[in-house]
Specification:
- With about 250 residues, this protein is of the alpha/beta class.
- The longest helix has 26 residues.
- The protein contains 9 helices and 7 strands.
Length: about 250
């Protein structure tokens, strides 16, 4: 067996043990602690997950305190632990994730809100839930592309869920994500696209050498006076501009 395969198997075994630890925390610790303590556990668990998978996080920019809607470009299932490693927060995720064995349950334990992307009625339901969470002071993150890309560019943004920030006048803060590895500035190993299964993606990730996620938190933007489509286009333009910069230093 090659060194690359041995490395992948070793990382996957450690990942399995780490997932088991997460299950134990959710089952036996979460019922007895408050929301802030749960989020602290979520942050530690996700930071450790990235370490187990052999992924380095390079972060820059400052996430604001208090109620904020964060939006990011979407490349991989790794986007969520990458962002949480910088600032623990709740996510809006597609309902398919809820059905993933074990992982879906862990994600739900972290306070994720699930949405049926193809249902306009469900989008309205989630807008109300996000608005309520923001009013309560929560920090919520979502991916307005609605699906993953190959990391080379951005898909069009769906603006519906941004209405939650507009409705309660809460700032929106964009996050630019890029994955690189030893051989590619934009790593193909991290991309979770097309018909790829989760296990295929995990094998590609654990086989990669020097996989790094660059997390650049951009300045917050007030939604006041903006229609949701205009807000979406401004946020998308900010992320595109950041991703198009030529050096790693620009991306954290």
């Amino acid at each position: 067996m090659s060194a690359r395969r041995l490395r992948a198997v070793y990382r996957l075994l450690r990942c399995g043990l780490h997932i088991g630890r997460g299950v134990a925390i959710c089952a036996f610790v979460f019922p007895f602690i408050d929301a802030a303590q749960r989020m602290a556990h979520v942050g530690r668990w996700n930071r450790r997950l990235l370490q187990v998978l052999g992924i380095t996080v390079r972060a820059s920019g400052i996430p604001r305190e208090g109620a904020t809607l964060f939006i990011a470009n979407h490349v991989s299932w790794l986007d969520i632990p990458a962002i949480i490693s910088v600032r623990p927060m709740r996510f809006v995720s597609k309902s398919d994730v809820r059905g993933w064995p074990v992982i879906g349950w862990l994600v739900a334990c972290g306070g994720t809100l699930f949405i049926e992307r193809r249902s306009r009625r469900d989008a309205q339901r989630v807008v109300h839930l996000v608005a309520e969470a923001l009013q309560a002071g929560d920090q919520i993150a979502m991916f307005p592309e609605g699906t993953t890309s190959d990391g080379q560019g951005l898909l069009p943004f769906h603006a519906n869920l941004l209405q939650a920030a507009i409705a309660v006048n809460v700032p929106v803060q964009a996050i630019a994500l890029r994955f690189s590895d030893a051989s590619e500035r934009v790593s193909s190993a991290a991309a979770y696209i097309g018909d790829m299964t989760l296990m295929q993606s995990m094998w590609a990730v654990t086989s990669a050498s020097d996989l790094t996620v660059h997390v650049r938190v951009l300045p917050a933007m007030s939604p006041q006076g903006l229609a949701r489509r205009e807000l979406a286009e401004r946020l998308r333009a900010d992320i595109v501009a950041r991703l198009e910069r030529g050096s790693d230093e620009d991306l954290g």
